From TrEMBL:
Transmembrane segments: 35-52, 72-97, 117-135, 169-184, 189-209
4Fe-4S among keywords: no
Protein name as it appears in the record: CAAX prenyl protease 2/Lysostaphin resistance protein A-like domain-containing protein
GO biological process entries: CAAX-box protein maturation
Organism: Latilactobacillus fuchuensis
Entry keyword set: Membrane, Transmembrane, Transmembrane helix
An example molecular function term from Gene Ontology annotations: endopeptidase activity
């Protein structure tokens, strides 16, 4: 199977995982269990994408990956750097669009998490794993072999931003661009998965402990 087909399979699987919880909730009248369904499908989706990604042919960014120690170091450092990028992008977003610093998407998830704590698994583990494999690995990594990496990063980050659907396009795009840079620097998705998951965990704990 070519890299193009492997990446297409990854993206298609991700889209199916996004749609299935709502589809099942509507079909089987399980709307009150929507967050439980989301968590289950997200965890299964993350596991499936990890398997697909493991079997995927290396793209042009992964030919010379950094040593494991460097990957872990950058992954942990990237947690704080991603948060810094988010704060700076939030300032720019407010200056240009007058958007509130609070994300409706995040507030909705955090409110639900107080009543349904298992949702933390979807937010801090499943979502970062899937998003890194899809947006950084399949889209940015896949496109980098055929077009300029900067354009590939911009396309990947714009799609990543649009996916979150809460109006903070600059914030999510900036985070996406930083994670693309981190992926290119280390040649490993594990770096960005650590950074993304760690950032989500810190944001989640901050909201829940307020």
């Amino acid at each position: 199977m070519t890299l193009y087909k492997q990446n297409f399979r990854i993206i298609l699987t991700y889209l199916i995982v996004l749609v299935l919880p709502s589809a099942c909730a509507q079909l089987f009248k399980l709307t009150p269990q929507i967050f439980l369904l989301t968590t289950i499908f997200d965890l299964l989706g993350a596991l499936g994408l990890l398997v697909f990604n493991r079997r995927r042919t290396a793209n042009s960014l992964e030919y010379h990956p950094a040593p494991l120690k460097t990957i872990i170091m950058w992954g942990i450092s990237g947690i704080l750097l991603t948060l810094l990028v988010q704060v700076l992008a939030g300032i720019v977003d407010h200056l240009i669009f007058k958007n509130s610093a609070n994300s409706l998407n995040t507030i909705t998830l955090m409110t639900a998490m107080r009543q349904q704590p298992w949702l933390i698994l979807a937010v801090t583990i499943a979502a970062p794993v899937m998003e890194e494999i899809v947006f950084r690995g399949a889209i940015f990594g896949g496109l980098s072999g055929t077009i300029n990496p900067l354009w590939a990063a911009l396309i990947s980050s714009l799609l990543f931003s649009l996916l979150h659907q809460d109006g903070h396009l600059i914030i999510y795009a900036a985070i996406g661009l930083f994670l693309c840079w981190l992926y290119r620097k280390t040649g490993s998705l594990y770096t960005t998965i650590i950074s993304h998951a760690g950032m989500n965990l810190l944001v989640t704990l901050t909201y829940l402990l307020r």
